[in-house]
Structure formats: structure tokens, C-alpha cells
Amino acid sequence: MSGNDGQRFDRLPETDSERDLDGRATREEVVGWWIDRFGLDPETFDGHSFWEKGAGKIWAFADELQSPADVEGLGMTFLRTRQEHWKPTTDAVQRFGREATRNVIVLDDDEAVRFLRGDDQELEWDGDWGYLIAAHEIAGDVEPIGVGLYLYGELRSQMPKGRQRER
Amino acid sequence: MDPLSRYEPLLDDPAAFRAACERPLPSVVRVNRIKATPERVRRAFDERDVGYEAVEWHDGLFRLDDDVSPGNTWPYVHGWVYGQEEVSAVPALAVAPEPGERVYDACAAPGSKTTQLAALMEDRGLLVGNDNNLGRLSALRANAERCGVTNLVVTRQDGRNFSLKPFGGERFDRALADVPCSCEGTVRKNPDALEDWSLEHIGAIADTQRAILDRAISITREGGTVVYSTCTFAPEENEAIVQHALEEHDCRLVEFDLELEHLPGLAEWNGDTYSESMRRAKRIYPHHNDTGGFFCAKLEVGA
User: Fold this and answer.
1) Residue among B49, B145, B149, B156 with most chain A CBs within 10 A, to mutate
2) pLDDT at res. A4
3) Distances (CA, A) of B248 to A110, A137, B218, B242, B281
4) pLDDT value at position A18?
5) Do B144 and A73 touch (CB under 8 A)?
6) How far is A31 from chain B, CA to nearest CA, in Å?
7) What is the model's pLDDT at position A22?
8) Average pLDDT of each block of 10 consecutive residues along chain A (167 residues)?
9) Is B184 left (phi over 0), alpha (psi -120 to 50) or beta?
């Protein structure tokens, strides 16, 4: 067993049988979570490698590199693990969420503006509770804005402070 | 002294040059093709009554009306556009990377040219974005993530002696050395740009520029491409640096297409003469296309 080093990137093991570190997610689990949660094509992430830096923060990278990697950034932050409910990142939802076929809540103009401001709002939603893709219609198609947490009839905006906008 | 007066003898219309340097710069955005097309960005702007005009020489650039704050538009929120000066879009086009290649950006932060390289690579292959300043690196990471870039490795090394160790020692197919400079060409964006101007400062920064370009050439494979660019007019930071590279390395200047009006690189300056091939480099002045000022040279390694 090697320890988790928060200052470098370690490649995720492919599957449970290759797992060398207690608590580290596997590639299979991480990709499986995204595909199941949002109904994506199973091949969506075939070209990406997956890495952990810090406790539970998973990064998606479009190429290969020797592990461990001593660099400042590797692709894009993708998913937060090592907590009860895994949480996708805003950037990953914007990048990969356009093809999602479930757990997408489409907001109208006013709702989208409130969401972007970082506000919570009461909304009707028949689907799963938990982390959803909040999206809206723009220029002829539905486009993801970010991550919403749906609980008890309320959509809680998870827009990071730096990405929030007053409009 | 008045730094810009040095360049008046080089110019067709010095008065127009002067006048342009005193006008503010239009606000321009580049479409990020990882996430959107120019058509979709147009449609989004039209839906929300955001005023813009197309830029003739590049279908992915839009000049926004003066009252538009790009960061507050939906296309910006979605990472469809990046605020980037027109001339700053030139070097990545000269690098012309292909999807799947290995590409090095020596001075990457805050990321306008890096994200443009990633889009040209269709977010595939290896793109290394290096910078030595931690604060600027966090801006680079945030900008790349907003643009949906997943093929970028961010490193914090000194570009003068960049190590290939994290990359298995393998050299790059292409490199961009868009180096720190005296920024004379950004005077329209930042009227204070010339306040600390001095020949001594230019001499010091030229040492750094030479070393960054030297290293970029050394870590690019034979037959590979290295592009050198600055946002300044000073030949000491432009032609003189490229001349040094031609003398020290097995490399040569090559032509590249640019539909913006421009002048060729200089063959001489203040008694120094440069290679005849320096005319393949390009000088862009503010009055030619109503942009900032820029210098760009494209080199082929070991050819």
C-alpha cells in the first residue's frame, strides 16, 4: 500500500483488483458513476486517463503520462470522491454534460439567472434527488450551466463563487 | 525619451501610427471551438441583443460593442468565448498544431493562446502550458477549465531551462515562445505600458527572451516548429532574438500565411544587420488593422 500524496497526481487503478490504496476510487467506478448518473454513451471517456490529487479530487486528462506526475495541473477537475455522495465539477458538467440523457434539469430564463447568481430556488422535479446538471436553452439547444443539488423541492446552486454572475 | 518615436522611420504613415496608439482598443472575443461554433455564438449574441461585428480575417473573432462586458454574457459563462486581442490570435495560428501532437507553450499564463492551441488540437494529444508564476498559473488553470480543455498539463518551471523529465524526455512537435516583453504594442490597452521604458530594461528582458527561445528550440524535435512572438516593436526583443537563434541552432525561418495587413521583419536596425530571411517574420502595427502591435516569427528546427 502506498500513501495518498496530496502534492502529486496518481493515476487511478483500472479496477478493484488493481487497487493499491484504500479509499482511492478506480477508473471503472469513476467512469461508471458519470455514465450511469447522466446516461452518457459508455465510450465517452475512452480517450481519457483519470488521476487523483489531494483527498478525493479526480482529474480527467486527454492523454497519457507517467504516474505519479509531479505537475501543477493535469487536464480538468472532474469529480469529488472520498465522500458519501460523489460530486461532479462545474467544468466537467459543462464539458461532458451536453450529451446527458438523464438528471438534467432545464431551467427557464429567470431560473437560469437565479442559478448563475448562486441562489437556491424552489422547483418542481420528478427525477432523482442529489446532484443534477442544471441547463438552459440557448441558441437552439440545451446547454449545461453547472451543478445543482436537488433536495426537498429545492434546487441549490453549486456554482463556484468565481463562476457566479449578477445579471 | 519617447520610445515610439524610434519606430517612425520604419513606417509608411507615422501620424496614423501615433493616432492609433492613442485610441482605446476594441473589445474582442475568440470563439472556443472545443465548446461552440461561430454560428452558435452569433445566435446567442443575437438572442440577447449583444452588439458585435465580425472580424474579416478570422471567422472565430468578434469585436464587441463598447457597452458590452464580455464576462457577463452567457457565451462567456458557457466557455464558448475567450476575451482575446485580435493580434494575440496570430501566434497559435502560426504554430498550427494538429490533433494528437505534443505541443509546448513556454509562457502560457493566463491562457488565451494556450486555450487557442488546445482548440486547434481538438483537445487531443499533449499540450504543456508552462509558466513560472503561481498566481498566473491559477488563472491559466481556471481559464483552461472554463474552456473545457482536458489535454493540458500545467507546469511551473523556469522556461530558460525547462525539463522534459515529467514527459519521459521526449521532445515536442511544436513550441510557442510568446515571451515576456516590454509590451510597447499594448499601449492602447494599457496607456501606462511605456512608463518604465528604458533601453536597460529592454537589454535585461532580451537576455530572458533569448534563453526561453533557445530552450524551446532545444526541446523541439527535428523538423518541428517553433514560433516566437512578442507584443512589442523593439527590434532588440524581436529580430535580434531570432537572429541569435539562427546563429546558435540548426533552424531556419519559414513563411506563414497571415491575412492581417503587416510589414516584414527588419533586415537591419541601428547598425546591426540580420539574416535576409528575417523578412519572413511579421510586424503588425496598430494603425494597419486597428489592433494592438505584435511581432511573430516561425522557425523550422533542424531542417
Assistant:
1) B145
2) 65
3) 61, 56, 11, 10, 18
4) 80
5) yes
6) 15
7) 73
8) 71 86 89 98 97 94 95 97 96 98 97 98 95 98 98 97 88
9) alpha
- In the numeric block, which cell numbers belong to residue B56? 474579416
Question: B166 vs A47: CB contact, 8 Å cut-off?
Answer: no
Question: Is the CB of A53 inside 8 Å of chain B's CB atoms?
Answer: no
Q: Which homologous superfamily is B3-24+85-301 in?
A: Vaccinia Virus protein VP39 (3.40.50.150)
Q: Same domain, yes or no, for A81 and A153? A: no
With beta carbons under 8 A apart, name residues in chain B contacting A76: 144-145, 148-150
**Predicted local distance difference test score (pLDDT) of residue B120:** 98
The answer regarding whether domain B26-84 maps to CATH 3.40.630.10 reads: no
- Please list the active-site residues of B: 231
Going residue by residue through chain B, which has 303 residues, state the pLDDT in tens, using 9 for 90 and above.
688 999 999 998 999 999 999 999 999 999 999 999 999 999 999 999 999 999 999 999 999 999 998 888 999 999 999 999 999 999 999 999 999 999 999 999 999 999 999 999 999 999 999 999 989 999 999 999 999 999 999 999 999 999 999 999 999 999 999 999 999 989 888 888 888 899 999 999 999 999 999 999 999 999 999 999 999 999 999 999 999 999 999 999 999 999 999 999 999 999 999 999 999 999 999 999 999 999 999 999 996
Domain containing residue A156: CATH number: 2.30.130.60
Q: For residue A65, list chain B residues with Cβ-Cβ distance below 8 A.
A: 126, 153, 166-167
What gap in Å lies between CA A107 and CA A116, rounded to an integer?
11
Of A40, A70, A97, at which residue does a domain stop?
A: A97
0.95 exceeded by the pTM?
A: yes
A46 touches chain B (CB under 8 A): no
Which residue in B74, B152, B167 is closest to A73 by CB distance?
B152
Phi/psi region, residue B53 (left: phi>0; alpha: psi -120 to 50; beta: rest), is beta
Give the A:B interface size as CB pairs under 8 Å. 91
Residue A83 and residue A63 share a domain: yes
